[in-house]
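dumping this here so i dont lose it
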């Protein structure tokens, strides 16, 4: 088998692998696009809006197509390079003749390191602690020297993983090819920024709620122009508001004055709760001991003052309760069932 056949086999494998990878990236991109758009509609973006400005939206289609084509060709090229040592006899013969040397230089330290780690893990280390510190120091010294030889394989593995990640994410614009550490400060991948800008643009201009509201507003404007063209007077905004509230009564609670009354009611409830807690603390507190030289009249005056103060606090609580009930009556409808309940509570408070 010659060099030409080796390259041919590598290209066949590369074309098949590149086609599968490209199809998978298209499916993942569609899924990720919809997922990010739905997150944007919920107000839970998983990216920085500064990296998705409308300025970056324009080159998205070109970046997507060029990234897919270039990634396809690059995967084929890498597959050809990987297939050469296995399909071309010249390189295969050279590697086989030096297999023992290469094994002892690269593979053997890694195998020893893995075996020692598996053994030491059983009796030297716990989940987050060390059993024997003297033995740990020896193990640390051993790992330092062994990693100097076996670390070459680790560095090559990291290089391979990095290149594989770049090959996969080159046609996949939904993920950046720049390191995650740099992405925390600034996204350097322009293709990924154009993808985020496309997501943001689709979210703003294709939101179904916004589109429906815009269509309804345009329909109202068209109806008003048609009414004025026929010489009829358009209804006032107050009448339209009354009609809308009559058709959708649940919107009453979201009007401005209703929200203000609800806020005032909540403040009164909080104030009443604090006063109730203060009154309970005052009732549970021990009585203040009188001085040894105090007379019986002085003690009577003090007790009467405490009684009057407690009755005053109870009266203030009752006033706050009536204010809260008045607000509840204003918020409740004329035919509401809660109105009768509020009135009965008020009558019971008056009789008590």
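and the seq i came up w/
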């Amino acid at each position: 088998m010659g060099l030409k056949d080796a390259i041919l086999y590598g290209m066949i494998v590369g074309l098949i692998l590149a086609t599968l990878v490209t199809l998978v990236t298209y499916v993942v991109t569609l899924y990720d696009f919809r997922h990010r758009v739905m997150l944007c509609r919920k107000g839970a973006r998983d990216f920085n809006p500064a990296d998705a400005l409308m300025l970056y939206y324009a080159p998205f289609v070109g970046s997507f197509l060029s990234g897919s084509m270039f990634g396809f060709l690059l995967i084929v090229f890498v597959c050809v390079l990987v297939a050469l040592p296995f399909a071309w006899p010249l390189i295969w013969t050279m590697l086989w003749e030096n297999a023992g040397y290469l094994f002892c230089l690269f593979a053997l330290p890694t195998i020893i390191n893995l075996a020692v780690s598996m053994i030491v893990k059983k009796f030297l280390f716990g989940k987050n602690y060390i059993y024997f510190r003297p033995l740990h120091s020896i193990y640390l010294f051993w790992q330092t020297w062994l990693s100097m030889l076996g670390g070459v394989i680790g560095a090559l593995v990291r290089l391979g993983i990095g290149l594989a990640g770049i090959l996969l994410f080159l046609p996949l614009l939904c993920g950046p090819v720049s390191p995650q550490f740099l992405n925390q400060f600034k996204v350097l991948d322009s293709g990924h920024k154009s993808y985020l800008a496309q997501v943001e643009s689709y979210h703003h201009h294709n939101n179904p709620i916004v589109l429906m509201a815009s269509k309804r507003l345009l329909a109202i404007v068209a109806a008003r122009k048609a009414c004025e063209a026929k010489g009829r007077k358009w209804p006032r905004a107050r009448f339209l508001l009354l009609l809308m509230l009559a058709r959708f009564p649940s919107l009453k609670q979201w009007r401005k004055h209703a929200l203000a009354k609800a806020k005032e009611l909540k403040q009164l409830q909080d104030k009443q709760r604090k006063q109730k807690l203060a009154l309970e603390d005052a009732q549970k507190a021990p009585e203040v001991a009188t001085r040894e030289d105090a007379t019986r009249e002085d003690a009577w005056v003090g007790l009467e003052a405490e009684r009057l103060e407690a009755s005053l606090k109870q009266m203030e609580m009752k006033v706050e309760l009536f204010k809260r009930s008045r607000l509840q009556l204003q918020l409740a409808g004329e035919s509401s069932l809660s109105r009768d309940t509020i009135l009965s509570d008020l009558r019971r408070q008056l009789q008590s």
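Residues 279 and 285 are 10 Å apart (CA to CA).
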